[in-house]
Amino acid sequence: MKRRQFLATAGAGALTVTLAGCSLVPVIPKRPTSTPDDALGWIRHEPGPGNRYTLWLPSAEMGQQISAALQGLAAAELGVPPAQVQLRLPSTGDIARVRATVGSASVQDFALPLARACATLREALAQRQTTGTLAARDIPASALRSLQPPTGTPRPTPPAPGQLHAIVTGQALFAGDTRLPGLRYGRVLRAPVSAELGSRPLSFDEAAARADPACVAVVHNPRLQQMGSLGLGIVARTPSALDRIEAALAVRWQVDSGAFEQTAIDERIDIDTHLRRGHLPHTLRKDELPADTAWTLDLRMDVPLAAHAPIEPRSATALWLPASGNGTALRVWAGTQDLFYVRDVLARHLALSAERIEVQACRIGGGFGGRTLCTVELEAAVLAQAVGAPVKVQWSRAQEFAQGFQRPPSSHRVRARVQGGRITHWWHAFASSHILFTPAAMPVWMQNLADLVGDSGVARGAQLPYDVPQQRIEFTAQRLPVHTGPWRGLGAGPNTLVVESAMDECAREAQADPLAWRLLHTTDARLAQVLRRAAAEARWPLRPTSDATTLRGRGIAGGIYKGVSYAAAVADVEVQRATGQVRVVALWCAHDCGLVLQPDGVRAQTEGNLVWCLGTVLLEQLPVARSGVAAATFADYPLPRMGDVPPLHVHLIDSTEPPTGAGETAMVAGAGAIANALRDATGVRFTRLPVRSADVLRALGAQG
Question: I need a labelling partner for 94 at 20 to 30 A (CA). Which of 453, 640, 664, 666 fits?
């Protein structure tokens, strides 16, 4: 072990040991590995006619169809039709602690223990064992019927689970659907600036607010502090009264110094500024590059701040129960990616034991990594305690933009040397902001300690998947005045977009076909397979041609997600010469995530990834102004609309490998393919995203 590695490791250990008992340390998420014995608590046989089972879903359901995948797996292992396995969303009192639903790892984490638990239960019932305690058998995956690759015919897709029927018939599934007797409606007002800045109410007209007959309470409570922002709570008898009461309060805010605009963010992550100071603090690969290297390529690229933009703004309902010894004191209904973390945060802030808090999972209308912290849940609990009645807090779209965390912007410089028909030297340096060490939950002093080891979420996807002898890959993470954190794929989307753009430019320098160039540099058989499959499905050699009004181009890109899942994509684009308007006209994607349990779900997730990739290249940029996020509606943050989405052709690779992640994998391929197709059509490498029509017109004009 090198000395620097030892110091980094020792620093991480010191952080854990020294700070574990410190009251200033925020609650740290616990991420246990679920065992088959844990999984026996997820699946229960219901005695009586019908031979029915109940499956308590260990993963959050947020549209990724994990419920259908695990329902089908349980049914296959139990030997019953899927309709006989009833799905239930658990509370923290129903199952043992499980890891958060993050990192596209639900099938990877939960399939094997659930299959072993179901096999154990099936065998026990076959032997008429209906009482006593079961211990899960350590059955090898090769002996589990639910984890065998299909032979000859495709794996049958289970019928639509009950949740899908409930969605289209308007039944209560989401946190915002919660209805309780005597329910009141709450909102926490905050200064219209980033929570990185200290802010608090300076003055307000409480008498005017209380004069409204629908006003229940104005709540001053230090527990309404979230990072630097101290809020002011209001509770009303009807949700429509909240706007009136807020207007009547006319809050004036005190904001600490530190005002900023977009330029402050750009300057803090400017990669050239950091490189002028020397090497960056964190390295993924550290080969010594010759000082006199003649670089064939020197490419600067910048990717902006982006939002999660879920269709459902977050909501939570809290109910305090009458004192009853050591029983449950607080129940919370929430759409969260980590039930148990929310419970732990509530316990810390409300001075309760975790066992006295029950958090009920609700379906999430889009998570994407943004629902991993405790925000609206704490607001609802504090307001409910203040008024002695159940309270629902529903964030507005503006609150969702302003008070959540965002995908960090990043600034990249890639230098490469092409010699003898191959890339011989590669140097990728980039600056971004924190992801796993999110400043939305981690104070500055703690983040400085965590920075000793580097944020692996920032680095995700930067490791070159191609064979280049000499490489240096380095990065820095800078705390920004706007909070950043996990966003679909973490750093994999922006980082692989830059890598694949640079690979394409190198291919052009070598006058090589972009597909052949990647295969030349590929030693990974699974990566080569998805590249070939995507190209074959798109009929790669048949390139689109331009005409007098329209420029046309085709691009390819590929990558590896978290070292275990593979994707490649081909994109065709059209560019109108007169207007600069860009349209993606087709996308093909080959996807290898190991054994596929639920093909429809994987295809849907892949399609969603491809739409996110389209937004990344052509549309999405979160505006910043006046010391905070300046978007309040989707008019301020344009997303791909149905008319922007081309035909999406998803091809799943038949694999006997263990199942791995599917929810974020195609992020490593789609954006690069679109950017490369745009380069092919226009002859211009656009280095600052997103690429708007005005950018294209300027570039075409510069070409004459």
Answer: 664
